[in-house]
C-alpha cells in the first residue's frame, strides 16, 4: 500500500511538472490590476500562423441576369440557425433570402417610411426565432421583422446617430449611438429589451474625431468635415451569451463586459506599432499604428472564439485575423484572401467583388495550405 502511495504521489508530481512545462511553452501573463483581470499574450499565437485557401462551396449573384440574384450594393451577409442566408443590400434597402443551397426564397424590405420599409438600411442582426432586427439610422428606429417580412414591432431612439446593432440569445438588443457635442463626438453603447426599455448603458467609448476644413468655392467659404479611413476607432461585438467585447484601435487590448454592464476582464497581445503613411491622399491619417481595426468585421466562430481583424494596410494582400479564445488566449493568426462575415456549421460566408465590379455572396470551406 505504501509503495502504491509513493507511486501515486510521484505520478501526480510528474503530471504537475508536465502541466507546468506545457504552460511555459506559451507564456501568457495573467494579472489582477485594480481588481480587473488582465490577460496579456506574447506577440505570437499559441498554435502559429495558418494560411487558408477558401474553397468555394457555392456562389449567389455576381454577373447574372436574374433580378432575384442581383445585388446592388450588398453590405452584410448572415445565416440563421435554420441555414437561411440573409444578404442585406444597402443599394435598395432590401434583404434577399436564400436557402442552404443558394436558391432564392424572397425579398423583403425596401425604401420608404412604412413599417417594413427603411429610410436607409444600415445594419441588422438575427435574433432567436429567425426574426430580423434592423437598424434604420435615417428614421432613428429599431424595427423587428419576421423572415416573411412582416413587421412585428420596434422602437425609436431619438438621440444620437445609430451606428450598429447586435442581439444575444435572450433577444436583448444592443445599439451603438454616435453622440456629438460641438466639435467632439463619442460612441455610447446601450442594451434595450424588445419594448425599447433601456437595460444597460455601457458608457462612453472613443471615436475618430472629424477633421473640419475651410474650402473656398465660387459661392464663398464653406466648411467640410471628414474622418480618416484608417484612424483608430472603437469596434465592438456581442456574443450569444450577452458579453460585450469592445476595443479602440490605438491599443491592442479588448475589454469584455458582463451582461449587467460590469467589466469582466481585458485581454490583448504584445505588438510593435509599425507606422503606416498613406501619403497625401485626402482624409487619411499621416501615421497610424499597425493594430487598427478599421472595419466592423469582428466575428465569433462556431466554437465561440473571437476573430479580430488585424490592420495591415488599406489594401492588404491578405485579410489577417488574430483568433482568441473566449477567455482571451491568443490561439492562432489566420490569413485568408476574402473577408469573412460569418461562420455557420464550419463554413465561412463572404461578399466578394470580381474584376468587373460585380459582387457575389459566397460560401467557402477553409482548407489549410501546406
User: Helix-strand pattern, N to C?
Assistant: HEEEEEEEEEEEEEEEEEEEEEEEEEEEE
**CATH architecture level-2 label:** 6 Propeller
Q: What about the largest sheet? A: 8 strands, mixed
- Structural category is mainly beta
CATH homology superfamily name? TolB, C-terminal domain
Gross morphology is: globular
Question: What key attributes describe this structure?
Answer:
370 residues, mainly beta, Neuraminidase, eight-stranded mixed sheet, 6% helix, globular, disordered N terminus
Description:
The chain is mainly beta and 370 residues long. The protein is built from 1 helix and 28 strands. The chain has one domain: Neuraminidase. It has one helix spanning 2-25; strands at residues 29-33, 36-41, 49-61, 74-79, 85-89, 94-98, 104-109, 121-126, 132-136, 141-145, 151-156, 161-167, 173-181, 184-192, 198-206, 211-217, 220-226, 234-238, 244-248, 253-257, 263-269, 299-300, 306-309, 319-324, 330-336, 342-344, 347-353, 359-368. Strands 22-23-24-25-3-28-27-26 form an 8-stranded mixed beta sheet, with no helix packed on it. Strands 1-2-21-20-19-18 form a 6-stranded mixed beta sheet, with no helix packed on it. A 4-stranded antiparallel beta sheet has the order 4-5-6-7, with no helix packed on it. The termini are far apart. Mean pLDDT is 84; it is low at 1-23 and 280-291.
Amino acid at each position: 500500500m505504501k509503495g502504491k502511495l509513493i507511486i501515486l504521489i510521484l505520478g501526480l508530481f510528474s503530471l504537475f511538472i508536465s502541466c507546468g512545462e506545457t504552460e511555459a511553452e506559451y507564456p501568457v501573463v495573467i494579472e489582477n490590476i485594480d481588481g480587473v483581470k488582465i490577460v496579456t499574450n506574447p506577440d505570437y499565437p499559441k498554435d502559429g500562423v495558418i494560411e487558408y485557401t477558401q474553397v468555394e462551396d457555392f456562389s449567389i449573384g455576381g454577373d447574372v441576369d436574374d433580378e432575384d440574384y442581383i445585388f446592388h450594393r450588398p453590405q452584410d451577409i448572415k445565416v440563421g440557425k435554420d441555414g437561411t442566408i440573409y444578404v442585406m443590400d444597402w443599394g435598395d434597402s432590401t434583404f434577399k433570402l436564400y436557402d442552404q443551397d443558394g436558391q432564392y426564397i424572397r425579398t423583403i424590405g425596401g425604401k420608404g417610411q412604412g413599417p417594413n420599409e427603411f429610410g436607409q438600411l444600415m445594419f441588422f442582426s438575427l435574433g432567436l426565432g429567425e426574426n430580423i432586427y434592423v437598424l434604420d439610422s435615417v428614421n432613428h428606429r429599431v424595427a423587428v421583422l419576421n423572415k416573411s417580412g412582416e413587421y412585428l414591432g420596434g422602437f425609436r431612439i431619438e438621440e444620437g446617430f445609430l451606428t450598429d446593432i447586435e442581439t444575444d440569445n435572450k433577444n436583448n438588443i444592443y445599439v451603438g449611438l454616435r453622440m456629438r457635442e460641438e466639435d467632439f463626438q463619442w460612441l455610447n453603447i446601450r442594451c434595450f429589451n424588445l419594448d425599447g426599455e433601456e437595460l444597460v448603458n455601457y458608457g462612453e467609448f472613443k471615436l475618430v474625431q472629424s477633421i473640419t476644413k475651410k474650402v473656398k468655392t465660387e459661392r464663398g467659404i464653406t466648411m467640410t468635415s471628414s474622418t480618416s479611413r484608417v484612424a483608430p476607432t472603437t469596434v465592438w461585438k456581442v456574443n450569444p451569451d450577452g458579453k460585450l467585447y469592445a476595443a479602440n484601435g490605438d491599443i491592442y487590448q479588448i475589454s469584455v463586459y458582463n451582461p449587467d454592464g460590469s467589466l469582466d476582464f481585458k485581454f490583448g497581445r504584445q505588438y510593435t506599432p509599425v507606422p503606416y503613411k498613406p501619403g497625401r491622399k485626402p482624409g487619411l491619417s499621416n501615421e497610424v499604428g499597425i493594430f487598427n481595426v478599421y472595419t466592423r468585421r469582428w466575428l465569433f466562430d462556431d466554437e465561440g472564439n473571437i476573430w479580430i481583424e488585424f490592420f495591415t494596410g488599406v489594401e492588404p494582400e491578405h485579410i489577417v485575423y488574430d483568433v482568441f479564445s473566449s477567455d482571451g488566449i491568443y490561439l492562432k493568426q489566420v490569413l485568408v484572401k476574402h473577408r469573412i462575415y460569418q461562420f455557420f456549421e464550419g463554413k465561412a460566408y463572404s461578399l466578394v467583388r470580381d474584376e468587373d465590379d460585380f459582387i457575389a455572396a459566397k460560401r467557402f470551406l477553409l482548407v489549410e495550405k501546406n
